[in-house]
Amino acid sequence: MIDIREATELDAESIASLSRELGYEASVDETRQRIASLHSRAEQCVFVADDDGVVVGWCHVAVVNSLVHDPFVEIRGLVVTESKRGGGIGRLLVEKGEQWTRARGIDDVRLRSNVVRDGARHFYESIGYRVTKTSNLFQKTLSS
Length: 144
Hints:
Layout: E1 2-6, H1 12-21, H2 28-39, E2 44-51, E3 54-64, E4 72-80, H3 89-103, E5 109-111, H4 118-126
Helix pairs in contact: 1-2
């Protein structure tokens, strides 16, 4: 039985491992610190999919505020371990994020997915999401 619950710092090792499955490198300590930081922010939450004590997926949601539109929630990350993909765990995680969104009086959920992740696109479309924009991502690293 899959239990969707809020992540704790004790989940850091599993979350870091799952993140590496998608190519995102983060140490257990970095992940633990990030979980702790997110816990202190009411506008963000991380959920995990717990399969009898083993974390097999996670979903990070965050409220985005702007001057040019009403607040929305963005799914900042979603991953399910490869051996469990296609079994409904991703859907459960997204549904939990959507419930969290509604509880805050927000109706709009958005996400970004790399165009090379065809499986992710098909998954999101299968649960009612649609592509509304294609854009470039610009980044500049500021050094101190």
